[in-house]
Amino acid sequence: MAALTYGTLDCFPENVLIDILSYLNVRELVRNSRVCRRWKQLVKDQRLWRAVDLSTWKGVTSRVLWILLRQYLGRGLRYLRLRGLLLSARGGAFLTESWLQTLTSKCPRLRRLCLLHTDLRSLRSCSLLPPSLQVLELHYCEVSPEFFSPNPAVLKQSKNDAKNKTASSASQSIAIQTLVVNNVPSFSDQHLRSLGSWPHLSHLELRDLIRVTVAGLKGCVPPGTQTLGHLKQLELETRSRTQMVALGLGEGWPGLEGLSLGGKEVSPGLLSLSRLPDLHWLRLRMCRLTHTLVLRSCRSLTKLRMLEFNEVEFVEEMRQEETDSETDRLRSEDDPVPNLRHALRSLLPRCSVCFTKCTLTVNKD
Question: Are 304 and 277 in contact (CB under 8 A)?
């Protein structure tokens, strides 16, 4: 019996057991909390609830969310990932105002919230989200027309009392610095203009948005009213040509330091990079480019320090003086375009160039 006692988990210290439990997902943690009283206390340790991913749990409902919030989630929560019921036959309300208020009070250190397939049209405004959020990700969600605006009730009161004072104090409560909007069908130019009231927004990612037009993107370029003047990094990835061309319609984007362009129609708006003199970081992904276009676009970017090509197809004309053996000797999988790399080094000596999963298409005609 003494030998069997030493073989149980009771002889392990608490830190070791918590490290073992950290490899389990949320559903397995809840099941293990029913083993005994000690395991129940160990599972409630906030070190196990810093990053919570519920996107793989298909049976999550509003009732399950309330149980997790009341029994497990607390001050240790930093990152929360949820999957809604847009693709579920059950439907029904998922995130309610009362649940968000309880989340705000019990988890004051929540910094990042990621929502997938979630219907947010029942929420009046994003001001109902926890004010401690710094990163908000919306993937395949649905939002209301006033979701990104401050509380509509606050705005209505501000018009009767002091106009902009109350509205500015309400917008100050939104501390989100990074916003990711991925394939949200209802996201339009109106939502894009509403982001101008977010004073701390510095990183914006827009992916596959069909209702964002050229005029809407151009209207967000500062200076002007309701513009994204605090924006430092912008990422655009879309299959639509209009959003790429929109970059070339403005006179530049003052203060923009990072830019990422992705999609099949990057080339039409690539020459507009010359109007972004403050650019430090540039990434081009999943597009088709030529050597001449890249060199012409980056010629005036003297402050550029990082240039990334991710899954880019380069098109090159074959010269008669080049032999196949010499071309094969210079090219490799990590560096399919050595001539372009050498040209960029001489053009931008302080810039680091990175090629990831790029290919080369040689036009023999």
Answer: no
Q: How many residues does the chain have?
A: 365
Give the pLDDT confidence of 130-148 residue by residue, as tens digits. Answer: 999 999 999 999 999 999 9
Q: Measuring CA to CA, which residue among 140, 137, 134 is closest to residue 119?
A: 140
Give the number of other CB atoms < 10 A from CB of residue 252: 15
Confidence at residue 165, expressed as pLDDT on a 0 to 100 scale = 45
Task: Give the phi and the psi of residue 219 in degrees, each rounded to 5.
Answer: -70, -15
What the block records as the tokens of 284 is: 């081009």
Are 243 and 266 in contact by the 8 Å Cβ rule? The answer is no
Residue 218 near residue 224 (C-beta atoms within 8 A): no
CB neighbourhood size of 311 (10 A): 14
Cα 306 to chain center, whole Å? Answer: 20
Q: pTM for this structure?
A: 0.84
Average pLDDT, the chain: 83
Q: What is the pLDDT of residues 176-226, one digit of tens each?
A: 999 999 999 999 999 999 998 899 999 999 999 989 888 888 888 887 767
Enter the DSSP assignment of 80: E
Work out the number of other CB atoms within 10 angstroms of the CB of residue 23. 7
d(CA 234, CA 203): 6
Instruction: Name which of 306, 307, 262 is nearest 288 in CA terms.
Output: 262
Q: To which H or E segment does residue 116 belong?
A: strand 112-116
What six digits make up the tokens of 148? 């990104």
DSSP 305: -
Q: Which two tokens stand for residue 212?
A: 């964002």
Cα 140 from chain centre: 13
CB 318 within 8 A of CB 273: no
pLDDT at 176: 94
- 203 φ, ψ (degrees, to nearest 5): -135, 120
The confidence score (pLDDT) of residue 49 equals 93
CA distances from 287 to 73, 85, 233, 308, 309 (A): 43, 34, 20, 12, 9
Q: For residue 223, say if its preceding peptide bond is cis, omega within 30 degrees of 0.
A: yes
Alpha carbon distance 73, 279 (integer Å): 41
pLDDT band for 71, please (50, 70, 90 cuts): very high
